[in-house]
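This is your field. Pick holes in the following sequence-structure pair:
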Amino acid sequence: MTTTATERATVRKDASGAADGPRRPGRIRRVGLPYLLLLPALLLELLVHLVPMVAGIVMSFKELTQTYIRDWGTAPWAGLDNYSMSVDFNAPVGEALVHSFLVTVAFTLLSVALCWLIGTAAAICMQDAFRGRGLLRALFLVPYALPVYAAVITWVFMFQHDNGLVNHVLHDQLRLTDEPSFWLIGDNAFYALLTVSVWKGWPFAFLIVMAGLQNIPRELYEAAALDGAGVWQQIRRITLPSLRPVNQVLVLVLFLWTFNDFNTPYVLFGRAAPEAADLVSVHIYQASFVTWNFGAGSAMSVLLLLFLLVVTGVYLAVTSRGRRPADA
């Protein structure tokens, strides 16, 4: 009887081993199939992003001017001259770059803060069901859904000095200004650019925060209301802490998008942005395609990339460190 049981176990083991043998190629195929499906996207990512990035880094070490633009591979090596010229803050090039950088920092901080504030407030107001909520949600997303050129060019007409809607409302209707203002030149250009950026960016914050609010259990608000917590206390104690992981990603994405924004100032002001709205992206474009110094423009681009990498790394390190005690 013992022998029979042993033989049966051996037969089962052999059968299972024989069954496992043919399954290995199929298992390998199943494991390798996701990577095979991702291969086209990876190749496109290399072609669209990494290859131009490497080419730009190489160009930053070359004396690439209009003379060598037809065959930039023959341009002489400049070493670190382009970088030293860009960071020489006593020279005109470095001084202009620092001014553009400070303008971009101020513009980005204000734009991200206002986009997050307006988007979060709108998402909280849209949290409870009421008649017409779906229509309002759709209307709120219109600025984000519109093409950039169509949206910004509309603001160009609205900011016109003589017949623009902004001056018509502020000066003719509300009498808030003594005379019509120039919004696309001078110091007002910064506020015009900030207005368009916030108008264009807050619906994205609204969409992300609204999605994050769906994961907060309604029972928390009901329990807080029974304990006597008001609306502001519920937002402070429940909504904002629950949205912290969402807001951490949202703020980083908004920061990177806004800091690198080129389309909005280019369509709003053209190739030569006013000094008050001279963002780094437009400044690098002018250094590369207006003065035809592609080596210096590439060096500025690499410096911008390094700055954004450092900011992103520090931000992720700080936010992840803040999450560890809660996770523990």
